[in-house]
Amino acid sequence: MAIMSPVSRGFHRRRQDPAENAGRVPPGQYVTKDFPVLSAGPTPHTALSQWTFSIGRRGQEKTWSWAEFRALPTQDVTVDIHCVTKWSKLDTAWQGVSVDTLLELAGHDGPFAMAHCDGGYTTNLPVADLTGGKAWVAYAYDGQPLAAEHGGPARLLVPHLYFWKSAKWVRSLELRDTNDPGFWENYGYHIYGDPWREQRYAGD
Amino acid sequence: MAGTALRRRLIWQVAKVSAVTVETASVRTLTLDVPDWPGHQAGQHLDIRLTDEDGYMAERSYSIASAPGEPVAITVERLDDGEVSPYLTDELRTGDDLELRGPIGGYFVWEPEDGGPLLLLAGGSGIVPLRSILRHRDRTGSTVPARLLYSSRTLDDVIYRAELDQPASGVEVIHTLTRDQPPGWSGYARRVDAALLAEVAWPAAAMPLAYACGPTSFVEAVSQALVQSGYPPERVKTERFGATGGT
């Protein structure tokens, strides 16, 4: 099926990842020290007094205000992130509330989740990818409140999937029985998005 | 419409470079002969993949510069510390192979039935997908009024300058040169901000459709200013690239 990639005449590798990065950069990715911003629309700015976070099935959500959310147990995590636009950033430091904690408190279960965000963005994930210490609702980056352009006041952080799954400005996780495509998934991006299997686009 | 544009699997294929056009000192347009191109929408991008003799591969995304129905073309700015862009701008020649797949993306796109008036905001090489939109507008005979506000560092950095100097009927092109202006320059000479947009942008009451593409700082500034002036956020489509976005 796959074609043999022809050698690009005159092309020479310029980036040599240091040895300690071995095994940390998925195929087709390159390491950047910047933190690029990619969003489909204007950056929303929701006042913390208006901000809530909800989780659960539609109509049965558990909802926290900002103050209640910030009173939940938090975790510090340092993870590598991988954007479908080809950059990876290693050792990014976040603070957030584990989705395990949120689901436990909400007392809900369901096989799939749709993240809903300010600005209308959505993305779908299996709940199995949000539990077991794999996902957070993060509100701080590098020791500082998360900047609006990077998804503040809070974003989903699911580092083992391409970063479009780590929805900025997240406001709820709606639990569902079906794995319906979210925003980019509807525009042809992969329904699951595993960077190690290079699942960038539908059919990959 | 969501999701209808892109359902077939995106398969890598080998295109041939059919022309290399010098746009500026650091920018080239590569016109490509793609054997099995499914067609694209104005505003979409494609992925290219380079392979060296050791099998090492580098992938990057580039906006499509040509209109639907035209030969596929990408416009690439050389970033000196990049791995891919210097190869594309300096090494690649007519007749060379280039592996690619696409088209990709379906949100930052425009079709005549989307209407307008159109406000196109370009920072630097962010002009590329907006140029595809303008050409598509022209080729489809659309009479939707369009304004392009294009921010460049200097006049020599303006991409597609000759083409933009001859805009189609109903298209206004407004330049701002942020770093250096030639003698006698009568256009804008500052960064795009709310005050400049207030002079140039369609009023929100006209229900315009805005597309902003450029560096993050540019897109953040212009999109915030438009929303504050009353543009509904869903009528402001953005595409941002960071310092590493197109290397």
In short:
The complex is a heterodimer of chains A (204) and B (247). Chain A is mostly beta strands and 204 residues long.
Report on this model:
Chain A has 204 residues and is mainly beta. Chain A is 8% helix and 30% strand. Chain A has three helices and eleven strands; from the N terminus they run βββαββαββββββα. Chain A has helices at residues 66-70, 99-106, 183-186; strands at residues 30-31, 52-57, 62-65, 75-82, 87-98, 112-117, 122-126, 136-141, 144-145, 155-157, 170-176. In chain A, strands 1, 4, 5, 8, 9 and 10 form a six-stranded mixed β-sheet that branches. In chain A, strands 3-2-11-6-7 form a five-stranded mixed β-sheet. The longest helix of chain A has 8 residues, at 99-106. In chain A, 42% of the residues are buried. The model of chain A has no long low-confidence stretch (mean pLDDT 94). Chain B is α/β, with parallel strands linked by helices and 247 residues long. In chain B, 18% of the residues lie in helices and 32% in strands. Chain B has helices spanning 85-91, 127-139, 161-164, 194-200, 216-228, and strands at 13-24, 27-33, 45-51, 57-63, 73-77, 97-104, 118-123, 146-152, 171-177, 209-215, 236-241. In chain B, the strands form two sheets. Chain B has a six-stranded antiparallel β-sheet with strand order 4-3-6-1-2-5. A five-stranded parallel β-sheet of chain B has the order 9-8-7-10-11, sandwiched between helices. In chain B, strand 7 (118-123), helix 2 (127-139) and strand 8 (146-152) form a beta-alpha-beta unit. The radius of gyration of chain B is 18 Å and the shape is globular. Residues 1-6 and 243-247 of chain B have low confidence and may be disordered. At the A-B interface, loops of A face strand 3, strand 4, strand 6, helix 5 and strand 11 of B.
Architecture blueprint of SSEs:
The complex is a heterodimer of chains A (204) and B (247).
Chain A: E1 30-31, E2 52-57, E3 62-65, H1 66-70, E4 75-82, E5 87-98, H2 99-106, E6 112-117, E7 122-126, E8 136-141, E9 144-145, E10 155-157, E11 170-176, H3 183-186
Parallel strand pairs in A: 1-5, 2-11
Antiparallel strand pairs in A: 2-3, 4-5, 5-8, 6-7, 6-11, 8-9, 8-10
Chain B: E1 13-24, E2 27-33, E3 45-51, E4 57-63, E5 73-77, H1 85-91, E6 97-104, E7 118-123, H2 127-139, E8 146-152, H3 161-164, E9 171-177, H4 194-200, E10 209-215, H5 216-228, E11 236-241
Parallel strand pairs in B: 7-8, 7-10, 8-9, 10-11
Antiparallel strand pairs in B: 1-2, 1-6, 2-5, 3-4, 3-6
